[in-house]
Amino acid sequence: MGDGASNKSVWRGEIVIFAVTLLLMLWPLALNGAPFYSSDSTSYLRGGGFGFHTGLMIVDNWWQGLVGHAAPAGAAGDPKAVVATAIAESGGARSLIYSVITYLLRLPGNSLIALAVAQAGTVVLVTSVLRRLVAPQVGFKPALAVGTALALLSSAPWYAAYAMPDILAGITIAGSVALTVLFDRASVLTRVFLVLLIAFCLTTHGSHLLIAFGTLAIGGGVNLWMKRGSIGEAARKAVWFASPLVLAVVALLGSSYVAFGEPSLAPKRYPIQLARSVSDGPGYRYLRDHCATEHFAICEIYGTNPPRKVNDFLWGPSGLRYRATPEQMERIRAEESRIVRGAFMEYPMDQIGRSIRNSFAQLAEFGLRGLVFGVHIVGTDDPQLQQDRPDRPQFRGAGEAVIYNSFLASLIALVAVRRRLTSLEIAALAVTAIGLLANAVVCGSLSGVTDRYQGRVAWVLPALALIILARIWQERREGAPA
Q1: What's CA 136's distance to the chain center, in Å?
Q2: C-beta of residue 172 within 8 angstroms of C-beta of residue 194
């Protein structure tokens, strides 16, 4: 009876902590009166609506074929023709799974508020899992203090309120640390939850798969090194550690095959790596030297002088999104790796040097530039962004100051208590740092340096620091020996 009542009390406390932390996590959403949006937010929304209704059409066609009824004639009744037309008009596709989730969580109206609340709730949930695995002895008040500090001082609430899959990169790192380094403290139910959560996050953006691969591999190696066991036990753990990657790959290949008739991890992608190589310089010089002889599709559009900025190259008024024909886009996707690889082989030191500079620059940039106040989504059939209130740069500046100072304070605090850190906490911090570095390398090398790419993950280290400090505070309060 005593243990049952105690467990009920603990879970009631966890529910209260979750609810209070979630409410506090929504303060940027409340301050803006809406989520923060990118032009990609409406692309996900439109794509999700299209994907959802096309999926219903696919199911209906399958059912009609199963019961022996003929499908409607013409392109209007052919899902493949509908998809091909949509891709031809848009020039490419983003994550199918995140797009559908965006559409389903678009309420109220097309505001995407439900999506932002769900993202904030997921941050709170994965942080709670980390806390219960790292410091299960932490009581109600310090646990609530951890959630409060995370909500008020870190980048997490800002990027949870951003109607983009960015925050899921941080959740990927936090979940990977919990699944690997803290595996032996987790129940089977917690492990299953983490596997499914990480797998979902990996399907929402191409960069997440690369980040998770490194974090899971290193975290898993750290666990096997710290908890040396039999070969059979190591193999069993390896299956758990690899499961999110396997599930994500299966989901991506399956959804790509159903939607486009071809299994691909990045179906109908925009040629972002080619744009990055051109922007860095090697790709630009390679095209200048080889367009006359290789006859690349990109040369048919730009000749030897493509736009040097990534956004201009892809989505600007004269970008591929508007200038390339569907046939040219298919050829550009097919030729992308060949051009990027050739540019690297001819200018290896230039590309390596630029990637290293971009990665270090990205590691230090995790502010709030790009989050614009006063923007709303208007329209239902064709949702668009509209700035109907002035931006609030003073709030963004104050938020950035808090984020950078709290991150620095968490590092100083960890150094100050370094002698009280357990080996498991040191391992968790190390793998988290590797995850942040992997994020900076992936985004800095393959995309571009911008605050949102590192801001989406920068909160994980302060969250772990807060949990560790709460554990140390409680032990001191209870008079535990140093």
Answers
A1: 28
A2: no
pLDDT at 58: 65
Assigned token pair, 378: 């208007």
Query: Is 482's pLDDT higher than 50?
Result: no
Which pLDDT score is estimated for 382?
Answer: 84
- pTM greater than the 0.85 cutoff: yes
For the beta carbon of residue 96, count every other beta carbon within 10 angstroms.
Answer: 23
Q: Average pLDDT of 77-98? A: 62
d(C-alpha 144, C-alpha 208), whole Å: 29
Reported confidence tier of residue 467, pLDDT bands at 50, 70, 90: very high
Structure tokens at 30: 């409340």
pLDDT digits (tens, 9 = 90+) for 410-422: 999 999 999 999 9
Separation of alpha carbons 93 and 99, rounded Å: 10
What's the CA gap between 252 and 248, in Å, rounded?
6
What are the φ/ψ torsions at residue 26 (nearest 5 degrees)?
Answer: -90, 5
Report how far residue 294's alpha carbon sits from residue 92's, in angstroms, rounded to the nearest whole number: 24
95-to-84, 207, 251 alpha-carbon distances in Å? 16, 11, 11
Cα separations in angstroms, 261 against 1, 206, 267, 297:
58, 20, 10, 23
Within 26-137, residue ranges assigned H as helices are 27-32, 39-67, 79-90, 96-104, 113-134
Q: How far apart are CA 193 and CA 215, in angstroms?
A: 18
The C-alpha atoms of residue 219 and residue 238 are separated, in whole angstroms, by 11
